[in-house]
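User: quick one, sequence for these tokens?
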């Protein structure tokens, strides 16, 4: 009887297992069918969605967009830029590279750079052979997919300077089209023209018109003609990165916000954004320079002859902001001497140096490069009495002013920094990275691989240190027990730096 019951139980168990397998197979098949249906629906959506540029229907490829299941759209920066007639390049701006995780787009008036997994973009305008950097933030990080960089509608608007809307259809309007369209309407509001200044043209993509009256006075209006700021200023410049406006009246400059309220009083001879995140502005008054914050309060007294380094001397360094280095250091020149303030207005390098940076030559045939910053170490080159030294971004001295020169050379696509000088009557030339390593100065900006290697080395050093300490203690205990006399030999180590 027991045997019969056991056989029935085993039979029922096998039957249940078979049923479970069938259920699992059905669930998997159902999931595959659902995913296929979603894929087909998304594909059909791209087929049924119509695409317009400046009101004209345009054919596009599937790779131009990625649409998520919840209807969110991402746009290929490369494909869209080329479709609009702009030049797109892979890699980091200013370097020869085909790195698809980075890219930049060039326009006649500016260059825009960006990279995957970051929502920060840089815009570079070149005037008088000098590159002026500003930056903006997108609503999401840029994504890398199938060798292409994708961004949201907010990102594509800011990167390509266009108007972009997506509902049932996708509509793109260029600045040229928007300018022409709104120009035909502003006569109804008694304005002569829309400002042709490129910075002001970019306001059009946000439905903001900076317009001029017959008497030359400028105003800020909406497309329906309602005023944000009346026609009372001699000039207005849209600050795209902050959303504010620089205004001019009677040769005096000030800043107003997007609602037209004053942020910085109209009392300066010049105003320039020093840093967007910090809300700092470089100002000029009575032919002297200082720094004020977004509330108009003075951060650095207006008593300096110059603020910032001359980035035209250090083009190979790709300095993004010549006024504030490493988001903290503000170089100033006063009475022919240089010093450095931090972002809070504290003097971290006394104003007693002859130069910030080392200029070794300006000839195009010279293979050596001038140096003002060493980016990986957040280090700055300073000079006094014809000698050079190096400090970090907090003002701490790394190398005293005893060097004859600091320069860089590019080899195999890598930048190598060198220092040269005289010691005991002999000339030396060192690789700066090896020298820093020898005196235990660590990189601030390191790759993940470098950080991992350093962590491994630290673990090994800790293990070796613990092992040596244990062996030393054991040896000391043994000697103490044996009554042996301990003798310690001290050898003075000499630091040798590889050339």
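Assistant:
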């Amino acid at each position: 009887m027991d045997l019969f019951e056991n056989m029935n139980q085993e039979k029922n168990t096998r039957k249940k297992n078979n049923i479970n397998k069938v259920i699992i197979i059905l669930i998997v098949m159902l999931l595959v069918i659902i995913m296929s249906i979603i894929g087909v629906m998304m594909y059909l959506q791209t087929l049924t969605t119509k695409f317009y540029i400046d009101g004209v229907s345009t054919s596009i490829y599937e790779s131009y967009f990625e649409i998520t299941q919840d209807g969110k759209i991402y746009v290929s920066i490369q494909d869209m830029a080329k479709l609009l007639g702009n030049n797109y390049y892979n890699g980091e701006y200013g370097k020869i590279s085909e790195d698809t995780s980075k890219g930049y787009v060039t326009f006649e008036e500016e260059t825009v750079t960006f990279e995957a997994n970051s929502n920060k973009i840089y815009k570079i305008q070149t005037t008088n052979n000098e590159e002026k950097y500003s930056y903006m933030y997108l609503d999401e990080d840029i994504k890398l997919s199938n060798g292409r960089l994708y961004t949201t509608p907010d990102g594509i608007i800011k990167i390509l300077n266009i108007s972009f809307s997506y509902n049932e259809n996708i509509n793109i309007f260029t600045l040229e089209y928007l300018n022409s369209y709104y120009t035909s309407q502003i006569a109804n509001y008694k304005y002569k023209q829309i400002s042709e200044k490129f910075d002001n043209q970019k306001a059009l993509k946000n439905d903001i018109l900076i317009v001029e009256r017959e008497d030359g006075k400028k105003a800020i209006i909406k497309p329906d003609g309602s005023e944000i700021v009346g026609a009372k200023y001699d000039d207005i410049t849209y600050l795209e990165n902050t959303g504010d406006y620089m205004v001019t009246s009677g040769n005096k400059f000030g800043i107003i916000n997007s609602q037209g309220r004053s942020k910085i009083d109209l009392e300066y001879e010049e105003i320039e954004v020093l840093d967007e995140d910090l809300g700092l502005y470089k100002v000029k008054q009575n032919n002297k320079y200082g720094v004020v914050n977004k509330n108009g309060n003075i951060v650095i007294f207006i008593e300096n002859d110059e603020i910032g380094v001359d980035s035209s001397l250090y083009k190979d360094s790709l300095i993004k902001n010549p006024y504030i280095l490493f988001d903290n250091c503000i170089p100033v020149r006063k009475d022919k001497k240089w010093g450095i303030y931090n972002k809070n207005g504290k003097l971290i390098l006394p104003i007693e140096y002859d130069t910030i940076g080392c200029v070794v030559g300006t000839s195009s045939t010279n293979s050596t490069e001038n140096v003002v910053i060493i980016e990986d170490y957040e280090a700055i080159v300073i000079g006094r009495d014809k000698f050079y030294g190096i400090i970090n971004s907090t003002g701490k001295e790394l190398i005293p002013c005893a060097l004859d020169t600091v320069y860089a050379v590019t080899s195999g696509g890598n930048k190598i920094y060198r220092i040269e000088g005289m010691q005991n009557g002999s000339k030396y030339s060192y690789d700066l990275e090896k020298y820093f390593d020898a005196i235990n100065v660590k990189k601030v900006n390191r790759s993940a691989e470098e950080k991992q290697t350093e962590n491994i080395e630290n673990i090994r050093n800790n293990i070796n240190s613990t092992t040596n300490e244990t062996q030393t203690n054991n040896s000391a205990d043994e000697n103490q027990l044996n009554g042996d006399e301990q003798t310690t030999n001290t050898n003075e180590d000499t630091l040798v730096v590889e050339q």
